[in-house]
Amino acid sequence: MVRPPLTSLERERGERLGLLLRQARGERSMAQVAAAAGLSAETLRKIEAGRIPTPALFTVAALADALGISLDALVSACSRPAAEPLPRLSADPPPPLSNVS
């Protein structure tokens, strides 16, 4: 089966998702966050760059959990045109990922 091409809206939403994830990652390394989410750093890099504009739901859920953000907030923010910071699940920063290299 051939997958139909993505619409411009789907591509824009993917770019927005990548931007939001990059902002939420902050100063943590891509490798740390990817490992915490159970992904490769290359996959995270492609999502952040918008090269994977429609990642699997469980991939996005794992990233949201690793970054300490609500999946609902992430989905909602992807629908807004402005790049607003995502609210964290708690006021505390996510725990450091020091055990991951």
Brief description of this entry?
It is built from five helices and no strands. The protein has helices spanning 8-25, 30-37, 41-48, 57-67, 71-79.
Describe it:
With 101 residues, the protein is an all-alpha fold. The chain is built from five helices and no strands. The relative contact order is 0.19. The model has no long low-confidence stretch (mean pLDDT 84).
Tag the structure with descriptive keywords:
101 residues, mainly alpha, 5 helices, 0% strand, globular
Q: Specify the biggest β-sheet.
A: none
Tally of contiguous helical segments = 5
Helix content: 40-55%
Percent of residues in beta strands: under 5%
Low-pLDDT stretches: none
Number of strands: 0
Write the layout of secondary structure elements.
Layout: H1 8-25, H2 30-37, H3 41-48, H4 57-67, H5 71-79
